[in-house]
Amino acid sequence: MKLKFTTFLLSTISFSFGQTTEKIIIPNGVVYNYASHKINEKVKKLIAESISQKDYYSILDKSLIIGPTLWNRFQNIESLKGIPGNVVFHIDDMKVDGKMSQDLDDSKKIWNEVKKEISGDYKIRKANEDELKYYWSTISFDIEEPLFVLQTEHHNYILNFLKTNMKLLWIDEFPIKKSYYNPIDNGTYKTDGSFKIYQGGNEVYMTDKGNKETKLEKVILLSSDIDLKNNFSVEDLSLIIDKTNKIFEELFKYSDKSGKIIVQFELGKSKNEIQFAVRDDLDLEIMKTFEERLYLEKYPNSKKDTIKFQLVYKVNSYNDIN
C-alpha cells in the first residue's frame, strides 16, 4: 500500500507541475529547460515593475550581456559608447559584436535605453520557435528559464534571467523584418511576422559581408509559410533553385564584372512569370543570355494560389549586410 501511495503522490505532483507550467514548441536541436510557474510569474512581475517604476532596477546586476542584434542598434548611443567589455559572437561562419556590462551603473544605462523605446502597450510572453532558434544560434549554453520576450510595437526583446537570483543575464532583440522593399515591382511588402531569408539551405537572421565571390547569395520568400506549404513542395522549390544555379554558374563563373541579380519567380496555377533586376557594373550581354535561358525552362505550377520568391545572386561581390 505504501508503494502505491508514493507512486500516486509522485504522479499528482508531476501532473500539478504540468498544469501550471506553460509549455512551448521547442525547435529541433535546441536544449530548453523549464522553470517553475512560480519563478516565471515572479520574474514577469519584476519586469513589469522595472518598466513602470522610475529608478527601479531590481532585475539588474553588474553583469549583463547585450546580444548582437540589440547591440548593433545600441552601439552608437552616446551614453553607451564608454561601456568596456566587448564580446564577439560566432554565429555560423560569422563574427558579430556584442557587449558585456561589468558594472551595475552600466547595466542601468542599458536598461534605461530599452525603457525609452517602450511606449504604449507591451506584452511579456514566452519565446516562439523563431525567437528560440535565433537565441540558440547566439549562445554556447543550454537555454534555461526564466526566458521571456518583451514584445512592443516595434521591437521584440529577448530577456534571459538567472533562476538562482532572478537577475537579468542576457538581453537581445529578435531581428524582425516586417517590411521588404521589392526593387522589381517597387512595392513594399509587409507581414505580421517576419520575412524569411535563407543562405546555404538554412534560415538566417543576420548576414555579414562574407567573401567576394560569384554565387547564390540568398533566397527571399515573399509568400507566407502557409501559402508555400499548401501550394508548393520543398522538392519543387529545390528543383527551381538548382536549375537556376546551374545556368547562373555556367554563364557568370568567369565574368570579370561585378554586380547583383534578383530573379523573381511568381508561380501560379496556370501561369508562371519570371522578372529580373540588376545592380552595379554587371555584364549585360551575359545577363541577356541568362534571362533567355531561364525563360526557356519549364517550371512547376502552384496547386492553387500564386506563390512568390526571389533568388539573389552576387557576381564578384560581397553580401548585402542586414
Structure description:
With 322 residues, the chain is an alpha+beta fold. The chain has helices spanning 2-20, 37-52, 68-74, 104-116, 129-138, 225-231, 234-252, 284-296; strands at 32-33, 63-66, 86-91, 94-102, 123-125, 143-144, 147-151, 156-161, 168-173, 179-182, 187-190, 196-199, 202-204, 213-221, 259-267, 272-279, 307-317. A hairpin with a 6-residue loop joins strand 8 (156-161) and strand 9 (168-173). The longest helix is centred in the first third of the chain and has 19 residues, at 2-20. The protein is elongated. Residues 1-17 have low confidence and may be disordered.
Short characterization:
32% of the residues lie in helices and 30% in strands. It has 322 residues and is an alpha+beta fold.
Secondary-structure blueprint:
Blueprint: H1 2-20, E1 32-33, H2 37-52, E2 63-66, H3 68-74, E3 86-91, E4 94-102, H4 104-116, E5 123-125, H5 129-138, E6 143-144, E7 147-151, E8 156-161, E9 168-173, E10 179-182, E11 187-190, E12 196-199, E13 202-204, E14 213-221, H6 225-231, H7 234-252, E15 259-267, E16 272-279, H8 284-296, E17 307-317
Parallel strand pairs: 1-6, 2-9
Antiparallel strand pairs: 2-4, 3-4, 5-7, 7-8, 8-9, 10-11, 12-13, 12-14, 14-17, 15-16, 15-17
Main sheet?
7 strands, mixed
How many beta-strand segments? 17
Q: What shape does the CA trace take?
A: elongated
Which residues form runs of ≥5 with pLDDT under 50?
1-17
Strand content: 25-35%
Q: Give the strand order of the largest sheet, numbering strands 1, 2, ... along the chain.
A: 3-4-2-9-8-7-5
Span between termini: 64 Å
Count of runs of 4 or more consecutive helical residues: 8
**What level of helicity do the residues show?**
25-40%
> Structural class, from secondary structure content?
alpha+beta
What average pLDDT do the residues reach?
Answer: 87
Radius of gyration: 24 Å
Order of helices and strands: HEHEHEEHEHEEEEEEEEEHHEEHE
